[in-house]
Amino acid sequence: MMDRLPHEKGFHVSWDQLHRDARALAWRLQNEAPEGGWRAVVAITRGGMAPAMIVARELDIRTVDTISVKSYNHQEQTAPRIIKTPDMDIMGDGTGVLIVDDLVDTGRTLEVVRETMPHAHVATVYAKPMGRAQVDTFVTEVSQDTWIFFPWDMALQYVEPYRGA
Questions:
Q1: How far is Cα 124 from Cα 137, in angstroms, rounded to an integer?
Q2: Catalytic residue numbers?
Q3: Chain centre distance of CA 71
Q4: Which of 156, 84, 160, 164 is nearest to 116 (CA)?
Q5: Contact predicate 61/98, CB 8 Å
Q6: Residue 99 forms beta bridges with which residues?
Q7: Which residues, other chains included, contact 121 with Cβ-Cβ below 8 Å and sequence gap of 6+?
Q8: I want to staple 137 with a disulfide (CB 3.0 to 4.6 A). Which of 54, 100, 123, 141 is the partner?
Q9: pLDDT tier at 4 (50, 70, 90 boundaries)?
């Protein structure tokens, strides 16, 4: 089998699809809420910000913060490191807190985040098999070798037809 470029085994997600999938994530999370409901949402930046905003809106969660973890240089994964933490006076050990990201790939980013809030509930819109164990709730699983193209990474452009011109 020939090697493929990332876009050849790509899963292209539109804004509409992301919105539908993030709402589906919220529907699943409403049944996972602890007694008293979710206290806060923490988005893993940058990819988790749009899904976290949608989840927070759907579940009427008003306390929203971010944690920034750098683990990619372009399309190459590197060792994850936290570059911004949420307000830990509010988040505590994570009890009653939702951590939201767009995707879990290898799970290394979530391992680092879980260390800061070990009792939080981790939710992603999409999950790959290697990172699946780091996620409590997700919507769609894709194969490990699938590259997901999120709407913030793309622009509309003309594409030549396969046949004819």
A1: 7
A2: 101-102, 105
A3: 13
A4: 84
A5: yes
A6: 42, 122
A7: 29, 32, 38, 94, 97, 98, 99, 136, 137
A8: 123
A9: low
Query: What is residue 1's predicted lDDT score, i.e. its pLDDT?
Result: 45
State whether residue 44 is helix, strand or coil. strand
* Peptide bond between residue 81 and the one before it cis (omega within 30 degrees of 0): no
Which two structure tokens, joined as six digits, stand for 143? 């194969």
Inform me whether the pLDDT recorded for 149 exceeds 80. Answer: yes
pLDDT exceeds cutoff 80 at 5 = no
> Which residues, including other chains, have CB under 8 Å from residue 30's CB and lie 6 or more apart?
58, 59
Q: Is 134 exposed, middle or buried (0-12, 13-18, 19+ CB in 10 A)?
A: buried
E-assigned strands of 3-146? Answer: 10-12, 40-45, 64-73, 76-84, 97-104, 121-127, 137-141
Q: How far apart are CA 35 and CA 32, in angstroms?
A: 9
- The structure's pTM equals 0.87
pLDDT in tens, 134-148: 999 999 999 999 999
